[in-house]
Amino acid sequence: MNDESTRQDIRQDGAAPRVVLVTGAGTGIGRATARAFAAQGPEVTVVAVGRRAEPLAETARSHPGRIHPLVGDVTAPGGPEEIVRWALERFGRLDVLVNNAAIAPFGWLGAYTRDGVEAVLATNLVAPVLLGQAALPALTESRGVVVNVSTAVGQRGWPTNSVYAASKAALETVTRSWAVKLAPRGVRVVAVAPGAVATPIADHSGFSPEQRAATRRWQIAHTPLGRIGEPAEVAWAIVQLASPQASFVTGVVLPVDGGAVVA
Hints:
Oligomer: single chain
Distance between the termini: 43 Å
Strand content: 15-25%
Structural class: alpha/beta
Number of strands: 8
Strand order of the largest sheet: 1-4-3-2-5-6-7-8
């Protein structure tokens, strides 16, 4: 695990910035989310977590000094605890945890392996749970927010990717359960459920280019707005749900899917 600059801006009112930790911040929704928080100005400092240094550095280039790359693996033994410890040692607080890191290898019943199933659950469910647990004391102190990134297919069946859908459905249950459990501490827990979004996650699905193109055509056909979403559109929803203005919102799972869930 390593990092780049740890310079911390100071808000105009003299207070320390809100500290936001975003996992899977090297590409896609995570990158867009890190940049959207940083674009709010010196009021926010972002810890951008991912497994590869160069994509994280690219994420940070848009807002030098406000996005701080942190190379780390959320699935490694002790990884979640070390990530949270790093943020607290350098910035002294944690206000928002965005559990975005995920993997989505395609597969169907009859073709799964134990290693494959365990990898999906380790990244998509176990890591968010352990990160939330590690961050809880700091989030309680700041009366902070957890934002879990689910998926629209977590709310219905997906025959060609049932384990991925199941991992996200479980994350939504965690969201609702934590929202009730942590409300007395002043900690809010929410989720967004993206639909078909233009991210690199499909490049690692194991599908051929032809299969990925066919999947995109199917997704567009089943999205009432008739297009693929952009990472920035999901990031907007995450930022809004985490904002102080959303202080009476908890336990919600917000679809950002062009209407796919209700179609």
